[in-house]
């Protein structure tokens, strides 16, 4: 009986975590289409794309010399 209860718990946890993961959509691409000259810094030196995205910000390192981690179009402040 304990094995059955344990198996049920595992199934519930797996199903619960997979639906939670699917619910997170992240930022849509068009919210991150900010002109390089209009970008507002939302990070710090050497921030990774994952760290930047976890702050709710956009990350684009394709253009050297401009801000890589920046606020999306609709945001007015950074989330920490």
Brief rundown of the structure:
Residues 30-73 form the P-type domain. This protein is mainly α.
Characterize the structure shown:
Helices cover 35% and strands 5% of the residues. It is mainly α. The chain has a domain at 29-79: Spasmolytic Protein, domain 1, CATH 4.10.110. Strands 1-2 form a two-stranded antiparallel ribbon. The radius of gyration is 19 Å and the shape is elongated. The termini are far apart. The relative contact order is 0.17.
Q: Please give the CATH architecture of the domain at 29-79.
A: Irregular
| Shape estimate | elongated
CATH class descriptor of the domain at 29-79: Few Secondary Structures
Average pLDDT metric: 76
CATH topology term of the domain at 29-79 = Spasmolytic Protein, domain 1
Question: What is the radius of gyration computed over CA atoms, rounded to a whole number of angstroms?
Answer: 19 Å
Topology order in helix (H) and strand (E) letters: HHEE
- Uncertain segments are 15-25
Q: How many helices does DSSP assign?
A: 2
Subcellular location: Cytoplasm; Secreted, Extracellular space, Extracellular matrix
GO molecular function: identical protein binding
Domain P-type: 30-73
Subunit structure: Monomer. Homodimer; disulfide-linked.
Task: List descriptors.
80 residues; mainly alpha; Spasmolytic Protein, domain 1; two-stranded antiparallel ribbon; secreted
Layout of strands and helices, then pairs:
Blueprint: H1 2-23, H2 49-54, E1 58-59, E2 69-70
Antiparallel strand pairs: 1-2
